[in-house]
Amino acid sequence: MTITHTGPLVRPRSVRWIHVPAGTCLYGDARKPRPVPDLLVAETPLTAAQCGVGETDLPITGISHGDAIGLAAEAGGRLPTSVEWEWIAAGPSRRLYPWGDEPWTPDRALLTGTGQSPRAAQPVGRYPSGATPQGVLDLAGNVWEWTASTAMGLGKIIRGGSYASPPLYAHTTFLNAAPVERRSPGISVRPVRTP
Predict the structure, then answer these.
(1) pTM
(2) Sulfatase-modifying factor enzyme-like domain location, by residue (predicted)?
(3) Is 40 exposed, middle or buried, given 0-12, 13-18 or 19+ CB atoms closer than 10 A?
């Protein structure tokens, strides 16, 4: 189910922020060192309930990149850069997946694979086995997440994979992109901010 954002609605007090310490992200497959400041990151992608468009814990989707910027700001944050997103997901040990280097299993993330045939995003927080060591949930699967980083061309980088993605797309270094005007049922927003 796609939930469309239509105006300033986010309930900032409903967002649970998790601290991710500063460090140097060895970004991407090329392992380019990039500094990352201390961050507070939303525990999950923003939900319909947090955005005032229902009482459901489904991630808000059907939003353009501009909508995502606005929602992140209303929540008291901003979109992460692609480097920041990767640091949150991979950490200093460069985890293959947000939970670690163990292979994907259906209890860790909503992805396309054996035992799952998802057709839409599911409520956030259903996969605690897929959390980062700090407790950030749903970085892999369920919905892609908009970032502030520009891709080649006019698009923006999206990270994390979705319910329709194979496990490879949930690797912490995997990059994808979407046009800024795209309103997909598989792309959401997770704000970050500096403490």
Answers:
(1) 0.92
(2) 55-151
(3) middle
